[in-house]
Structure formats: structure tokens, C-alpha cells
Amino acid sequence: MIDRRSRTRRLLEVELPILLIVVFALAPYVWMVLTSIKPAADITARPLQYLPSTVTFEHYETLLARTSFAGNLLNSLIVALGAVAVGLAVSVPAAYAFSRFRFRGRRVLMTSFLVINMFPIVLLIIPLFVLMRMLGLLDTFIGVIAGHSTFAIPFAIWMLTSYMNAIPRELDEAAMIDGATRLQTIGIVIMPLVMPGIVTTGIYIFVTSWNEYLFAMMLSGQTVRTVTVALQLFIGEFSIQWGLLTAGGTLIAIPVTILFLIVQRRLVGGLTAGAVKA
Amino acid sequence: MKPASARARLTITPYLFLLPALLVTAAVILLPVAQTAWMSLFDYVLFRPRNIPFLGIGNFIRAFNDPVFWVSLWNSVVWIGAVVFFQFILGLGTALLLNQSFWWRSAARALIVVPWALPSVIIGLMWTWMYDFNLGIFNDVLLRLGVIGEPIAWLARTDTTLPAVILALVWQGFPFFAVVILAGLQTVPSELLEAAEIDGARPFQRLRHVTMPAIMEVVATALLLRTIWVANSLDVILVMTGGGPGYVTHTLPLYAFLKASSAMEYGYAAALALILTALLLVVVFAYVRRAAKDLEI
Questions:
Q1: CATH code, A170
Q2: Which of A157, A213, A274 is nearest residue B235 as measured by Cβ atoms?
Q3: Do A123 and B36 touch (CB under 8 A)?
Q4: Would you list the domain boundaries of chain B?
Q5: Gene3D superfamilies from the entry (chain A) (predicted)?
């Protein structure tokens, strides 16, 4: 069908429209990055100066030297790594149980983890704030990481269960017949095979936690403030300094864009099975 | 080892593996949800901790009589309908195009998912910047093309704000549909399409009678999932407009959130959050039934 189509027709009917869609998808991003490397005079020039007259990193320097942004980047990194650690530590064993055992309540529990992931954030965020205040965990890493594990755990359990289901059970049975204990079997057979799945799930938790705004805003103060919250505060504070704001936006966006591009191909399977948050 | 104890071990092992997940989930999800339900029965205002009168269903009656609640509910319906519809249409179109073969297809597929990777705060920032009254690129381009005579305050006018925010969210969410539908399309057997073509079906007829029925399952799941996320999402609106001007971009989750975070009326906010959850339950139920269908392997 495609062979018969002439090259020009394919160009007009497929490549041109898809090029327009790619431009639409990237334009806001490109515009943000361009703004961040323009001299201040270019940004306020009218009519607009689309391309920078000279490339400058002054906004990045100001942002990192004069504001708390560098510290906020570090906080976000700690929170995201913490969410990955907590999420994976409790979800790998849970996924193993769901994949390798048939037990009473399995279906109900798995379904519950799916339903939990659909709960509106507002339903959890209000009591979590009250709870963390009571426990004295407001503005601590533990508090924000706990908030992020509300979405990390259900998602990770579903993703990892589907990865583990893809490993043939004959492999663990063979290991156990050869005399390996259950824990040895997990260590020698299951873990190496499921590692790509664990990495993908971990990266996805990292990206979601790094991007998260509402929990971080409610549960953090000055000490553990993450980048998304800090940037949102800057929008109020430096309302007309778009160079500074777009530099911050670019610094936040680039790491997650790269990570997301690495895992995106492997995500599709887990998507409709469940738990990917937008 | 005695058989009886072996069987006992067999039954308890999976629960041991599940224990950490269950404990953490109980602490960070179940307990808070129960607390929300409890709080919704009181007139709990954060800065008035000593005086928390019991209201029963008073907060729910208050919502029923609250005009802002009804405005927010209506906005939510418009918001969900428009956002999901346009995301789906654009995503379907993108997926159909990406299902053709051309030499830079995998590059196009990778680039298209970029909006999906970005945090909502950045999306809000980018689009607020593009909509800027003085220096925004939208006004600039439209003025240069002569479409408008003078700049428009996109995020301050009652008639343009909601569409402007909807466009930002369509941009963010269409890659999800594109990727999911593309995965569905790749399972449609090409013999089926070739047979239809030999039988004289035109491209649109092939799409309608062969392709669409084959990907209906995937599309339905994606639509349900997306409806739930869009219904719950409030951060892009919060960043771009804070719900304004007036109540023009107040949606139900945003209203609940603002009642808690600015007004500190936790009891009422909890009631609003519960109403939202109850309204969504039908969609969640439909989705979970689909997703849990192949659990019994």
C-alpha cells in the first residue's frame, strides 16, 4: 500500500502534518529555552526579537548565585531519590507476591492499589498536611517523601507486577528444584531478569516526584523546598524577569526530559494496565 | 518438615512480602482518607483549633447552597469534556500519522512525548509567558499577521481564560493518547486492512470499519484513565490563573484545594474533596473493571 504511494503524496499527507505536530509539541519548550539565553534587552524588545542577538548565560548565573535555586535543586534531588527508594523497597516484594502467589484477597488487594491511585490529590493532601503538622514532619524530607509515596507505591506495584509476570515461572521452579531457597531464587533468578523493569519504574517515580508540585507545596517550607515550588514562588516574586524564570524552567525541565526520553518506549505496556500519572 | 506447617508457611509468605507496602499505604493513604471523611463532618478551620463544632452533613448542605460550588462543578464538566476531547482527537490524528512509515518516524515519535515529561509548573510558566500581554509571542504573532488589532490579555479576560488554559492542557496531554493509540494500531493485522482495500474500501471507510473497531478497547481504557486524571488535575490551572479571573477557571478540585490552602476551611474542603471523589467513582469503577479483567492469570 505504502510502496505504491508516490513520494510527494507521502510528503504532503504524512510528513508535513506530522512535522507540524512535532513543531506544536516542541514550540513552547524551544521558546522557553530561547528566552532563557537572550540578553534582557532582547526579551523586552518590541516587536519581539525571536532569536537571541547574542547567546548569554547571565540569567542562569544570577539565578544560581543570587537565589536559593541551587539549594532547591538539591532538595528536589533528595526528595525524588527518597521517593524512588521508598517506592521500590516496598513495591518489589509486593509485586513478587502478586506475581508468584495465588492467595486469598489477591484480586481485592491489587484492585485496591489501582483504585487508590485514582484518588484525587485533594482528598489526601488536606489530611496529610494536618497529620504531618501533628507529627512535626512539616518541612522535612520524610514528610514530602511520604506525600510522594502516595502515588509512587501503587504505580510501582502495578508496573513491577506486570514485569514479573513476564518472567516464566518455570525458571524459579527449576531453581527451587535444584535446591535454592526462595530468597536465593529471588536473588539469583528473578532480580537480574526484572532489573530493566525496576530501572524503568524507578526512573518514572523519579520524574513524577521531581515534577510534583501540590504535595511539595503543602508539605515543605523553606528548609526542604523543591524546585517546582521555588519556581512558582519566583513567578510571584520576579513577575517581569522572564529571563530568570525561563532559566529556572529550563534547568528543571532538561533532566526530566532526558530521563523520560530514555524510558518512554518501555512505558507503553504499563500505561493502559494502569497506573501512569500524567 | 511436616506437611501442615509447610502449608501454613505457604499461605503466610505472600502476606509477609506484602506487609511493607500495606503498612506504608495504610499510613499515607487509608488513614488520611478516613481523616478526610471524619473532618468533613466538622466545621474545622485550621486557625481556630479549639473550636471545632460538629456539623453532621452540614458541610454537604453548604456545598449544595454554595453558588461557587455549582460554578466549579460546571467548569469541571466543560474542562474535562473539552480537554479530553481535544487531547483524544489530536492524539488519534498523531497516532494514525505515526503509524505510516517514513524515515524519521522514530525521531518524531520520541519528540512528540516531550510535553508529557514536563512538570505542571513549567507548563504553566511556558504558557503564561506565551500568553503575556506585552511580551507574549501569541499577541506578537497575531498582531504581525493582522488577525488582531491590539494585544489581548488572554489570562485576564473572562471569555479567553478558560480556552487558553484548556489549550495548554491539550498540549500537555495529547502525547499520552498518541502513544497509547499508536501501540493499539500496531496490533491491527495488516492483512485485515489489505483485504478491506481489495474489497474497495476507501481510506476513511477502512479507518471507520476496520481500524477503529480493532482499537476500541485501547481507546476506551485510555479515555477513562484520562478523564480521571484531567478531573483530578488542578496544578496547571493553579499556576496559570489561580482559578480566576473571578471564578472563571475554578474547577471542583481547585475549589477544594483553595478552600483548604487559602481559606484554611479544612472541614468544608474535605467535604468538597469527598463530593469530587464520589462523582468520579463511576468512571473509576468502569476503568478498574477493565484494568482488573486480566488479573486472574
A1: 1.10.3720.10
A2: A213
A3: yes
A4: 1-28, 40-295
A5: MetI-like (1.10.3720.10)
Mean pLDDT of B180-184: 87
Q: Answer whether B28 sits within 8 Å of A48, measured CB to CB.
A: no
Architecture per CATH, B40-295: Orthogonal Bundle (1.10)
Kindly report, residue by residue over B145-171, the tens digit of the pLDDT: 989 989 999 999 999 999 999 999 999
Q: Tell me the residue range of the domain where A212 lies.
A: 67-273
pTM (two decimals): 0.90
Task: Report how far residue B1's alpha carbon sits from residue B6's, in angstroms, rounded to the nearest whole number.
Answer: 7
User: Which of B29, B100, B188 to probe the A interface (max A CBs under 10 A)?
Assistant: B29
The answer to whether A160 touches A93, Cβ cutoff 8 Å, is no
Interface membership of A24 toward B (CB under 8 Å): yes
ipTM above 0.90, yes or no: no
CB count within 10 Å of CB B28 equals 23
Based on C-alpha coordinates, what's the Rg of chain B? Answer: 25
Q: Which chain B positions have a beta carbon within 8 Å of A126's beta carbon?
A: 32, 36, 39, 256, 260, 266, 269-270, 273
Closest by CA to B90, choosing from B171, B183, B206, is B171
Location of C-alpha cell 452540614: B58
Among residues B65, B49, B224, B119, which one has the least CA distance to residue A256?
A: B119
State the cell numbers at B263: 481559606
Residue ranges of E strands in chain B: none
